[in-house]
Design a protein that fits this description.
Pfam families: Prenyltransf. It comes from Buchnera aphidicola subsp. Diuraphis noxia. Its EC number is 2.5.1.31. By secondary structure, this protein is of the alpha/beta class. Among the domains are: 130 residues, Decaprenyl diphosphate synthase-like (Undecaprenyl pyrophosphate synthetase), CATH 3.40.1180.10; 36 residues, no CATH class. The protein has 7 helices and 6 strands; from the N terminus they run βααβαβαβααββα. Strands 3-4-2-1-5-6 form a 6-stranded parallel beta sheet, sandwiched between helices. α1 packs across α2, α2 packs parallel to α3 and α3 packs parallel to α4. The longest helix is centred in the middle third of the chain and has 24 residues. It is globular and about 60 Å long. The relative contact order is 0.18.
């Protein structure tokens, strides 16, 4: 079964564990190239790593998991690869709905979904509607997502509300911006993990990770597992989070 857990991997829940973990899943194509395979096969293996990350999150009582699956910049890749990714996305939605329901997972797709074809858009809406009342892990999949896009669409909504008299300019604060982002209503991101060896954010959740802890690993995403995830959690627990303040 997809989410059948082995007890030997279950860790004692610590109050210091992050509530919201975001992962930049990098390295699928390099993993495939190293093995002499097509890029799409790397993405398929990456999907298996995604399922491992979901398992770990449920087992360790992580409340929110946000995964960077497809950025706005990824649209510039070859049409063959992009189409393959869209087919894999549709396959995942069709085949994992029963597991989302069984394990009480609420799925949210964050990003500009108008880029996707109607079949994929309809499936996204269907799965989100079916899982909206699930009260376990919130699983955010960032698809055709960019942090700059997210802030721009938030500002546009705020401007429209100001023009309509719903908002006053003086009422606009930091929390106002947050209310209009694609992650509205969710806890702040505590920990960002990036695989693949790169040490940059790549336009991911730019507003939401202002005070997140950042963990980078050279491991390519298809090789990501519960041990590497635990290393990231241990790193997070070891950190002293000041949020711009001083040590007391």
């Amino acid at each position: 079964m997809l989410y059948k857990f082995s007890l030997k991997y279950k860790k004692k829940i610590k109050k210091e564990n992050p509530n919201h973990v975001a992962i930049i899943m990098d390295g699928n194509r390099r993993w495939a190239k190293k093995k002499g395979k097509l890029s799409i096969l790397g993405h398929k293996e990456g999907f298996q790593a995604l399922k491992k990350a979901v398992k770990f999150s449920i087992t360790n009582n992580i409340k929110i998991l946000t995964l960077y699956a497809f950025s706005t910049e990824n649209r510039n890749r070859s049409m063959l690869e992009v189409n393959g990714l869209m087919e894999l996305f549709l396959f995942a939605l069709n085949n994992e709905l029963h597991n989302l329901e069984k394990y009480n997972i609420q799925l949210k797709i964050i990003g500009d979904t108008t880029f996707f074809n109607k079949t994929l858009q309809n499936k996204i809406n269907q799965v989100q509607d079916i899982t909206v009342k699930n009260s376990g892990l919130i699983l955010n999949i960032a698809a055709n997502y960019g942090g700059k896009w997210d802030i721009i669409q938030s500002v546009k909504k705020i401007v429209k509300n100001v023009q309509q008299g719903i908002l006053n300019v003086e009422q606009i604060k930091e929390h106002t911006i947050s209310k209009y982002l694609s992650t509205r209503g969710l806890r702040p991101v505590d920990l960002v993990i990036r695989t693949g060896g790169e040490k940059r954010i790549s336009n991911f959740l730019l507003w939401q990770i202002a005070y997140s802890e950042l963990y980078f690993t050279d491991v390519l995403w298809p090789d990501f597992n519960q041990y590497i995830f635990q290393n990231a959690i241990d790193f997070f627990i070891s950190r002293e989070r000041r949020f711009g303040g001083c040590k007391k």
